[in-house]
C-alpha cells in the first residue's frame, strides 16, 4: 500500500513506503518565506510579459543574507529550543553537586537526621536525572522541528530557482548536489546550533566551578582549551572537495543519459576508467578534509585524557599538605565529574562548530545559486510595436498603427550563445505573418534553431528587438522532450482534458494506431527519456502536445526528422494542408528545417545562409522560381566554421524521471542483518578491522584506568599520597598519552586507510553494475534512485559511515568498561544494569527495525524530488513555453512535502530512543544511590567512582545508541549497494574474448531469431532468418516501429534473444563478452554521445590516439576549423560546441577513424542536409570498401546506393534484394512503399 494513496500518475512515481500518519506542523514547503509556494498559480500567458507572468522572487536592492532570511522566516522554530536547552544545562551541572553530597553523606557517621537527608538525596537524584530525560527529549524534538522546516524551505527554494534560471546559467549538476549533499549539511548544522552555544556556556561554567574547587590549578587547562579552535583552510578544502564531487556527478549524469550510445559503441570499459579516475581525484581531495577531521577529533579528545591529569596534578603540587589530605574523594570526583562535563562540551564544541561551519559553507553555495541570474523574457509585445505612417492631416501629425497582421517582428537581431562567442544570427530583420505556416530554412549549422530560440524568448538577442503576439506558445524541440508520465499526460500536460481535441491530436500525429497496439493504451508510461517509446513516437507525442494546446503560436524545430515518409506525409496533410488542424485554426506556425520538401506547405519562407544571415524571404510563389538555385546555394551548403553553435535542445546535463520505481533497497535494505556487517567487514578487510579494534581498546583503557587509580589513591593517607605522587603523575600522563596516541592511530587507520579503500570500491561496484546492466534495467529503474546511488549512497559511505563506525566502536567499548566499574563498586547495580539493559535491548531492536525502514523510506522518498528536478531541468524551455512552470512547481511542492514525512519520523524516532536511554540512566543512578543510602557500607572513593561512571555511562549509552543506530542506518546504504550488485541482472553472460582478428570477413547469420526488449514484453522480431554476405552494403527500411533498430541492436547485445542464433564469421556471439563484440564493430548511433571532455580525450575513449589522424578526419567532415578556433584538440566537447547535425558529423569522424569489418548505422545523418548525407555516405563506402555495412534509414536517395535493401514490417522480413531492381518491379513491396510514399 502506498503512503500516498491520493497521488496520481501525473506526479512522481514513489516507492511503496507503507502507511505513515501526517505530522502536526508544516514541513516548510509552503512557508511564508517561499512566495512561489504560497502564490495561487494560474496558467500564465506563454509570452511571459505583462500581467500573469511570474517574475520570480523579488530581491531587495541590498539582499538579505540567506541565513538571516531563513532564521527570520522560521524564528519561532529557531527560538523554541532555547528554554529547554537552558533547563538541560542547569540540570547537567546539578550532577557534580549530587556526587559531592552523596560522598559527604556516606563519609559522615549516621545520625538521627540521616534518614531524612538520605531520602532527600534520593529524591534529588530522581528529580535531576528524570528531569534531564524529559527536558532533553523536549529540546531535541524542538530541534527536529526547526531542522525539518529548514530542510523543506531550502529544497523548495532550490527547486523554484531551477525553474527560473536563465538557460545561460550552467547549474544542472550543481542543483542536484545542492538538493542532496548541501541541504543535508545545512540541516545538520541547524540541528547543532543550540548545542554549540550551550557547549561554550557549559565550558565556561564548568571551568568556573573547577576553579572554585582547585583554585588557580584550573587555569592551566585554559591553554589546552585555547588550542582547540582552528579552521585554517577548511572552507577551501571543502569547496575543492565539493567541486570534485560535482564534476564526477556531472560526467556520471552525461553517461547515464547516453548509456545506450555508450553500449552501442562498446565504450563502456573506457567510460568506466574515466569515471573511476574522477573518483580517485575526488578521493585524493577528500584526504585533506579527512586529515582536518582527524585533527579535530584527536584534539577534542585530548581534553578527556589530559584535562584531569593537568588540573589534579597542579592542584596536588600546590596543595597545602597540612590540611591532612592532598585530595579528598568528595573534591576529586566532583571535579572529575566537572572535567567530564567540560571535556564532553569541548568535544561537542569542535564537532558542533564544524557541522555549523560546513552547513554555512553549503548555505553560501545555495545562496550563490539563488542569487544567480534568473530568466526574464527579452521579447516585447507586438501590440507595442507600431509603425508611423505620414498621413495628410491638418496638423501634419503621424498616426500610430498597430500591426495586427504580424505575429512575430524581428528587427536587426543578432544572437550568440556566449558573451564572447561569434554571432550565430547576424542582423536579421523580418516579419512573420499572423496565421499560417512560416518556414525558416537553411543549411546545417546556419542558426535556424538559434533563431527559433530567440522567438521563443529562451535566448536574448545580443542586439535588435523581438516582438511577439501576446498569445500562447507551443514548442517542439529538435530532440523531443518527453516526461516520465503517461502518453496521455505528456500530451495534455497542465491543461484541462477535452476528449474530442485529444482524439484529433492523436489522429493528426498518427498515434491512434500505436496506442491501440500498446497493452495499457495511452496510459503507457514513456520511461527514462522516453525509452519505452520509439524515436518516431517521441516526435509525434511532442507534436500532439503542441496541437492539443491550441496555442496561437507554434514553434517547430525540425521536429519531423526520423519519421518514415508515409507517417510524415500523413502528419503534414493533417496539420499543414488547407484544412489541416493548424492551417485552419487562427494559429501561426514557424518551422525551422534544412529540408526543401516542406516549402510547398509554407505561406511564407525565410531563407538563412551558412553565415546566419537572412538572404531571401517571401511567399512560396515568390520563392519558387529560385528554388533550384537556392537548394544548391543555401539549403544544401553547410558552413561549419563558426565558433558559436546552437546547443542541444536538451541542454541540461540531467536525467529525466523514469517509468518504474526501483524499490530493491526498500525490500531488502530495510531489514538489516549480520550478513551486511559480514559483507562490510569483508570489504574493509578483517585484519584492518582487528587492528582498528585493538587501537580503540587501548584508547578506552587509557581513559578508564586513571579513574580507577584516582579512586584508590584518594583513600590513601596523607603520607601515602605524598609518597605516591610520582606514580600519580606517571599514571595520569603516561596512560593518558597512550590513549591519545591510540585514538590518533585509530582515526588515521579508519579515515585514511579503510574509508579511502571502501570509497573507491563502493563506487567501483556501483559503476560496474550500472554499466553492465541490461538495457531494460534503465527503462525499469527510477533515474532518481540510480543517481542517488552515485550521490547520496556514496556520500553516506564516504563520511557518515566511518564516523558512525568509530563512534559506535569507541562508545561501546567505553560502555562495557564503565559497566564493569559500576558493577564492581556496587554489586546490586550490576543486576539493575542487566535488567534494564534487557528492556533497552528489546526497545532498541524494535527501534532499529523501525529506523532502518524509515531511513530507506527517507532515501527513496527523496528520489522523486531529485527525479522531478532533473526532469524539469531537462525540459525547461518546453515547460516555460507551455506555461507549465506552475504545474511543475505544484508537483514539486507535493513531492517535497511527501519526502518530509519519513525524514520527520526518523528524527522523532531517534528522540524517542534517546528518551528511553535517559530514563535507563536515571533508573540506574536511582538504584545506585538508593543502595548506598540504605546500606552505607561503601567507601567514599568507591561510591564516587560509581557515581562518576554513571554520569559517563549515561553519555556512553547515548553515544552507543546514537552511533550504533547511525551505523545501522548508514549500513542501509551498504545494503543497498550490496543488493544492487547482487540483484541487478548483468548483460554479460560470458567473458570469452574473440580472436584478435575477429571478425575477419564480416559474415552475419540470423537463424530463426526472436528478439524482445524485455521478458515482460511481446517479441519485437519473431522467427527471423537472414544471411548477410561479407562486404555487403545493406539498407534496412520499414515503417516506424517495424523493428529496424531492434535488428541492428541485436548484434550489439542490447536486446534479448528469446530463441534462435546470431553468428558472425561462424561464431555464436552469445558465447562472447558483449563489450568485446561491440568494440570490434564500427557503430554510428542515432543519438550522438556528448561528454564534457576534450576532443583529444573523447577520441581516446574510442581507442583513437593519433592526433594527426584525428585532425585529418575532422578536416574531411569540415569540423576542424570550428575546433581549431575553439582551442584545437583541447577544446571541450560540450552541448554548446556543436549543433545537432554537427554532433552527428563528429560521431561520423570518430567512426571513420576506427577499423572494423562490420559497420552499423542507425539513421546517423538524420539531422544534416542532403549534400552532407551524400558526402558522409560516400565517405563510409570509401573508408570501409570491404566491410559489411548495415544502415537503418528512411531516405530513398540513400537506400538506392546500397547493394541490398531489407524491408521489415511488424518484426518480419517482407522483402530483400537490389533496391534498383526492386524499384523496377511494380509488385515489389519496396516499390509499393516508395510509390505510396511510405519511405
Automatic annotation (TrEMBL):
Question: Can you tell which superkingdom this protein's organism belongs to?
Answer: Eukaryota
List the Pfam families: ABC_membrane, ABC_tran
Domain ABC transmembrane type-1, which positions? 86-357, 690-968
- Look up and give the membrane topology term: Multi-pass membrane protein
Give TM regions. Answer: 78-99, 120-139, 197-225, 293-314, 689-709, 729-752, 801-824, 830-848, 909-934, 946-967
Cellular component (GO) terms are: plasma membrane
Q: Where in the cell is it found?
A: Cell membrane
Q: Residues in domain ABC transporter?
A: 408-636, 1004-1235
Q: What is its main location?
A: membrane
Can the keyword Transferase be found in this entry's annotation? Answer: no
Task: Please list the GO terms describing molecular function.
Answer: ABC-type transporter activity; ATP binding; ATP hydrolysis activity
Q: Which UniProt keywords are present, listed alphabetically?
A: ATP-binding, Cell membrane, Glycoprotein, Membrane, Nucleotide-binding, Transmembrane, Transmembrane helix, Transport
Family in the record: Belongs to the ABC transporter superfamily. ABCC family. Conjugate transporter (TC 3.A.1.208) subfamily.
This protein's name: Multidrug resistance protein
Query: Where does this protein come from, organism-wise?
Result: Fusarium oxysporum f. sp. conglutinans
Amino acid at each position: 500500500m502506498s503512503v500516498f494513496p491520493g497521488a496520481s500518475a501525473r506526479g512522481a512515481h514513489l516507492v511503496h513506503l507503507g502507511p505513515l500518519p501526517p505530522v502536526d506542523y508544516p514541513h516548510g514547503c509552503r512557508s511564508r518565506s517561499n512566495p512561489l509556494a504560497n502564490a495561487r498559480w494560474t496558467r500564465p500567458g506563454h509570452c511571459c510579459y505583462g500581467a500573469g507572468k511570474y517574475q520570480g522572487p523579488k530581491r531587495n536592492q541590498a539582499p538579505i543574507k540567506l541565513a538571516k532570511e531563513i532564521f527570520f522566516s522560521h524564528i519561532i522554530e529557531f527560538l523554541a529550543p532555547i528554554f529547554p536547552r537552558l533547563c538541560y544545562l542547569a540540570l547537567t551541572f546539578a550532577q557534580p553537586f549530587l556526587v559531592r553530597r552523596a560522598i559527604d553523606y556516606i563519609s559522615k557517621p549516621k545520625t538521627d537526621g540521616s534518614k531524612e537527608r538520605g531520602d532527600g538525596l534520593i529524591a534529588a537524584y530522581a528529580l535531576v536525572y528524570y528531569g534531564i530525560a524529559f527536558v532533553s527529549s523536549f529540546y531535541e524534538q524542538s530541534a527536529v522541528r526547526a531542522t525539518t522546516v529548514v530542510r523543506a524551505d531550502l529544497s523548495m527554494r532550490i527547486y523554484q530557482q531551477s525553474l527560473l534560471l536563465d538557460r545561460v546559467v550552467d547549474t544542472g549538476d550543481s542543483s542536484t548536489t545542492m538538493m542532496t549533499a548541501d541541504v543535508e549539511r545545512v540541516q545538520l548544522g541547524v540541528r547543532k546550533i543550540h548545542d554549540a552555544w550551550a557547549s561554550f556556556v557549559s565550558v565556561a561554567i564548568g571551568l568556573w566551578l573547577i576553579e572554585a574547587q582547585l583554585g588557580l590549578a584550573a587555569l592551566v587547562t585554559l591553554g589546552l582549551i585555547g588550542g582547540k579552535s582552528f579552521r585554517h583552510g577548511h572552507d577551501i578544502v571543502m569547496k575543492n572537495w565539493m567541486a570534485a564531487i560535482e564534476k564526477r556527478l556531472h560526467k556520471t549524469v552525461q553517461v547515464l543519459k547516453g548509456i545506450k550510445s555508450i553500449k552501442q559503441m562498446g565504450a563502456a570499459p573506457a567510460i568506466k576508467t574515466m569515471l573511476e579516475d574522477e573518483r580517485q581525484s575526488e578521493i585524493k581531495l577528500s584526504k585533506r578534509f579527512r586529515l582536518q577531521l582527524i585533527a579535530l577529533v584527536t584534539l577534542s579528545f585530548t581534553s578527556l585524557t589530559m584535562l584531569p591529569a593537568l588540573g589534579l596534578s597542579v592542584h596536588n603540587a600546590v596543595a597545602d599538605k597540612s590540611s591532612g589530605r592532598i585530595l579528598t574523594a568528595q573534591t576529586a570526583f566532583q571535579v572529575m565529574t566537572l572535567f567530564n562535563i567540560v571535556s564532553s562540551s569541548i568535544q561537542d564544541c569542535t564537532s558542533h562548530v564544524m557541522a555549523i561551519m560546513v552547513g554555512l559553507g553549503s548555505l553560501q553555495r545555495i545562496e550563490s545559486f539563488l542569487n544567480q541570474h534568473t530568466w526574464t523574457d527579452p521579447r516585447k509585445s507586438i501590440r507595442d510595436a507600431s509603425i508611423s505612417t505620414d498621413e495628410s492631416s491638418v496638423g501634419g501629425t503621424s498616426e500610430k498603427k498597430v500591426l495586427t497582421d504580424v505575429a512575430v517582428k524581428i528587427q536587426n537581431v543578432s544572437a550568440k550563445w556566449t558573451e564572447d562567442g561569434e554571432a550565430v544570427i547576424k542582423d536579421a530583420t523580418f516579419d512573420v505573418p499572423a496565421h499560417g505556416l512560416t518556414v525558416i530554412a537553411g543549411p546545417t549549422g546556419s542558426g535556424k534553431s538559434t533563431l527559433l530560440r530567440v522567438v521563443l524568448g529562451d535566448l536574448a538577442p545580443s542586439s535588435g528587438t523581438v516582438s511577439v503576439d501576446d498569445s500562447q506558445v507551443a514548442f517542439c524541440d529538435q530532440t523531443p522532450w518527453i516526461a516520465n508520465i503517461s502518453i496521455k499526460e505528456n500530451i495534455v500536460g497542465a491543461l484541462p482534458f477535452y476528449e474530442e481535441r485529444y482524439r484529433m491530436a492523436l489522429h493528426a500525429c498518427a498515434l491512434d494506431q500505436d496506442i491501440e497496439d500498446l497493452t495499457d493504451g495511452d496510459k503507457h508510461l514513456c520511461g527514462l527519456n522516453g525509452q519505452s517509446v520509439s524515436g518516431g513516437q517521441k516526435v509525434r507525442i511532442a507534436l500532439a502536445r503542441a496541437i492539443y494546446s491550441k496555442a496561437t503560436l507554434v514553434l517547430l524545430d525540425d521536429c519531423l526528422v526520423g519519421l518514415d515518409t508515409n507517417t510524415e506525409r500523413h502528419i503534414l496533410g493533417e496539420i499543414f494542408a488547407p484544412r489541416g488542424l493548424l492551417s485552419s485554426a487562427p494559429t501561426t506556425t514557424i518551422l525551422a528545417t534544412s529540408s526543401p520538401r516542406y516549402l510547398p506547405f509554407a505561406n511564407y519562407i525565410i531563407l538563412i545562409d551558412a553565415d546566419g544571415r537572412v538572404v531571401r524571404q517571401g511567399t512560396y510563389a515568390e520563392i519558387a522560381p529560385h528554388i533550384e538555385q537556392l537548394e544548391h546555394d543555401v539549403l544544401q551548403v553547410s558552413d561549419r566554421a563558426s565558433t558559436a553553435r546552437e546547443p542541444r535542445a536538451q541542454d541540461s546535463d540531467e536525467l529525466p524521471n523514469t517509468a518504474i520505481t526501483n524499490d530493491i533497497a526498500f525490500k531488502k535494505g530495510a531489514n538489516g542483518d549480520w550478513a551486511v556487517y559480514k559483507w562490510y567487514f569483508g570489504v574493509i578487510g578483517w585484519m584492518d578491522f582487528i587492528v582498528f579494534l585493538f587501537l580503540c581498546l587501548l584508547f578506552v583503557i587509557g581513559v578508564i584506568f586513571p579513574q580507577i587509580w584516582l579512586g584508590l589513591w584518594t583513600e590513601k593517607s596523607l603520607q601515602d599520597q605524598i609518597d605516591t605522587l610520582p606514580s600519580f603523575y606517571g599514571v595520569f600522563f603516561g596512560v593518558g598519552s597512550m590513549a591519545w596516541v591510540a585514538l590518533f592511530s585509530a582515526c588515521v587507520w579508519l579515515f585514511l586507510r579503510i574509508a579511502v579503500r571502501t570509497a573507491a570500491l563502493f563506487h567501483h561496484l556501483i559503476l560496474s553494475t550500472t554499466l553492465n546492466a541490461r538495457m531494460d534495467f534503465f527503462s525499469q529503474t527510477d533515474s532518481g534512485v540510480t543517481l542517488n546511488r552515485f550521490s547520496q549512497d556514496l556520500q553516506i559511505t564516504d563520511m557518515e559511515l566511518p564516523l558512525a563506525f568509530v563512534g559506535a566502536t569507541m562508545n561501546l567499548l567505553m560502555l562495557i568498561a564503565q559497566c564493569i566499574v559500576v558493577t564492581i563498586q556496587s554489586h546490586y547495580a550490576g543486576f539493575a544494569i542487566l535488567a534494564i539493559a534487557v528492556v533497552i535491548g528489546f526497545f532498541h531492536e524494535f527501534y532499529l527495525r523501525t529506523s532502518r525502514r524509515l531511513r530507506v523510506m527517507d532515501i527513496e522518498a527523496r528520489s522523486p524530488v531529485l527525479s522531478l528536478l532533473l526532469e524539469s531541468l531537462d525540459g525547461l524551455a518546453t515547460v516555460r513555453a507551455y506555461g507549465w512552470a506552475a504545474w511543475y512547481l505544484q508537483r514539486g511542492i507535493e513531492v517535497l512535502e511527501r519526502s518530509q514525512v519519513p525524514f520527520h519520523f526518523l528524527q522523532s524516532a531517534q528522540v524517542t530512543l534517546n528518551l528511553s536511554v535517559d530514563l535507563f540512566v536515571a533508573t540506574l543512578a536511582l538504584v545506585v544511590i538508593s543502595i548506598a543510602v540504605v546500606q552505607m557500607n561503601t567507601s567514599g572513593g568507591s561510591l564516587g567512582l560509581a557515581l562518576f561512571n554513571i554520569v559517563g555511562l549515561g553519555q556512553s549509552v547515548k553515544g552507543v545508541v546514537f552511533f550504533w543506530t547511525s551505523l545501522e542506518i548508514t549500513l542501509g546504504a551498504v545494503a543497498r549497494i550490496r543488493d544492487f550488485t547482487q540483484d541487478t541482472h548483468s548483460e554479460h553472460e560470458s567473458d570469452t574474448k574473440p580472436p584478435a582478428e575477429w571478425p575477419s570477413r564480416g559474415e552475419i547469420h540470423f537463424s530463426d531469431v526472436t528478439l524482445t526488449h524485455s521478458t515482460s514484453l511481446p517479441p519485437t522480431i519473431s522467427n527471423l532468418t537472414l544471411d548477410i554476405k561479407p562486404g555487403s552494403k545493406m539498407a534496412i527500411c520499414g515503417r516506424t516501429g517495424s523493428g529496424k533498430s531492434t535488428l541492428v541492436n541485436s548484434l550489439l547485445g542490447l536486446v534479448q534473444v528469446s530463441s534462435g542464433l546470431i553468428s558472425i564469421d561462424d561464431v555464436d556471439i552469445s558465447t562472447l563478452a558483449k563489450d568485446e563484440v561491440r568494440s570490434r564493430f564500427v557503430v554510428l548511433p542515432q543519438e550522438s554521445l556528448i561528454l564534457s571532455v576534450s576532443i583529444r580525450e573523447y577520441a581516446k575513449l574510442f581507442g583513437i590516439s593519433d592526433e594527426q589522424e584525428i585532425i585529418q578526419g575532422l578536416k574531411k567532415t569540415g569540423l576542424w576549423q570550428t575546433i581549431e578556433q575553439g582551442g584545437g584538440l583541447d577544446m571541450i566537447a560540450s552541448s554548446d560546441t556543436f549543433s545537432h547535425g554537427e554532433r552527428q558529423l563528429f560521431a561520423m569522424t570518430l567512426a571513420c577513424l576506427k577499423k572494423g569489418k562490420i559497420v552499423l548505422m542507425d539513421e546517423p545523418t538524420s539531422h544534416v542536409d542532403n549534400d552532407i548525407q551524400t558526402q558522409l555516405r560516400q565517405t563510409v563506402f570509401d573508408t570501409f570498401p570491404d566491410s559489411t555495412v548495415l544502415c537503418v534509414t528512411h531516405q530513398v536517395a540513400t537506400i538506392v546506393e546500397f547493394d541490398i535493401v531489407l524491408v521489415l514490417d511488424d518484426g518480419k522480413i517482407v522483402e530483400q534484394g537490389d533496391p534498383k531492381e526492386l524499384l523496377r518491379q511494380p509488385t515489389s513491396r519496396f516499390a509499393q512503399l516508395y510509390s505510396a510514399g511510405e519511405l
